[in-house]
Amino acid sequence: MRQDDEGPVAADALDRVTWALRRTESAVQALKEQRLRPLGMAAAHYSLLMRVHADPGLTGAELARRLNVTPQAVASLVARLEDRGQLERRPHPRHRHVQELHLTDAGQDALRVADAVVAEIEQQITDKLGPEDAARLTALLGQAADAVRET
Amino acid sequence: MRQDDEGPVAADALDRVTWALRRTESAVQALKEQRLRPLGMAAAHYSLLMRVHADPGLTGAELARRLNVTPQAVASLVARLEDRGQLERRPHPRHRHVQELHLTDAGQDALRVADAVVAEIEQQITDKLGPEDAARLTALLGQAADAVRET
DNA sequence: TGGCTACTGTCAAACGTTTGATACGTGCCC
DNA sequence: GGGCACGTATCAAACGTTTGACAGTAGCCA
Fold first, then answer.
1. Is A86 a member of any domain?
2. Domain named HTH marR-type: which ranges (chains A, B) (predicted)?
3. Domain span at residue A50?
């Protein structure tokens, strides 16, 4: 009988899906940061602006949930983006002290420029994999995310 | 002629591979943190221990490069793990003030317990996708990482 | 041998995020 | 209508990381 039955610290742990996921995401994020920095925009800013662009009128708390960060982190980013004139906080029609988030025209412009950079990275991956494998990768990632959330 | 020719902020930006990658990685990391916390170990600690387990004798700087973090972050984690008696810093045979990193027996045990949790999450994903799709996902992630690094 | 270069490790400070706690406004149920 | 629960927003403090700068050591070449 082997004595590692309880778990030999899996020698193939570095071949796992979760490990590959971590490495790839890390590489993509690093490249994104690197190319976004010259434009004066952090990756977190881009993600937030894109989210607000997709769902205008979001509240800070709701935005925090969708980005998987805390409301305080969102508030910090929003304050900065508002100072730059890229984001706007409007009073909510029903709730008085709730603020709706909307992109300004300047925010739209900044997002368009930043998105070109991200789209280029996306293209880089799509070129390497081909259209069908890229679509398959996206689908598989979606299934993996579902598997994790179904806990 | 449409005026968005320069880029309409891609309405399908949320269907991108990079976006799916971000969401999935975030979900996996969140679950990992959640299940590792009761064991008194952060995800960053697990990653570091697993790396040292795979390549014993690594230096802090080399470890930092492989984990995509700064040497200072590694030094901070190493100090804590050393205090817990899970990690050991031995003098490098050739370079005098260079420290080699090795797991202690206690470190091995802690890693084994933590790895069981991570392996369970891996299994959760593999069960959902099936063996062949899981392998395909890993392969596609590897190709995507290569595409990004080939810049 | 002397000096240059590259790599490693550590210190100090700034930044961003999380954690914890508090106050305000709304909607629901008794 | 009064009271309770939920969601939102904000403040203060602790934590972890990055950025920037510095000292020590080994390898290389003139």
1. yes
2. 14-146
3. 36-149
A31 located within any domain: no
Q: Residue B67 CA to D14 C1' — how many Å?
A: 25
A67, A137, A149: best mutation site toward chain B, by most B Cβ within 10 Å? A137
Nucleotide nearest to B89 (CA to C1'): C9
Total of domains in chain B: 1
Q: Tell me, yes or no, if B125 comes closer than 8 A to chain A by beta carbon.
A: yes
The domain that holds B74 is classified in CATH as: 1.10.10.10
**B26 lies in some domain:** no
Residues 13-72 of B with CB under 8 A from A: 13-18, 20-32, 47, 50, 53-54, 68
Q: Give domain status of residue A95, yes or no.
A: yes
- Three-state SS for chain B is CCCCCCCCCCCCHHHCHHHHHHHHHHHHHHHHHHHHHHHCCCHHHHHHHHHHHHCCCECHHHHHHHHCCCHHHHHHHHHHHHHCCCEEEEECCCCCCCEEEEECHHHHHHHHHHHHHHHHHHHHHHHHHCHHHHHHHHHHHHHHHHHHHCC
One digit per residue, the tens of pLDDT, for chain A of length 151 reads 544 445 567 677 888 999 999 999 999 999 999 999 999 999 999 999 999 999 999 999 999 999 999 999 999 999 999 999 999 999 988 888 899 999 999 999 999 999 999 999 999 999 999 999 999 999 999 999 999 998 8
Q: Please state, in angstroms and rounded to a whole number, the distance separating the CA atoms of residues B9 and A65.
A: 23
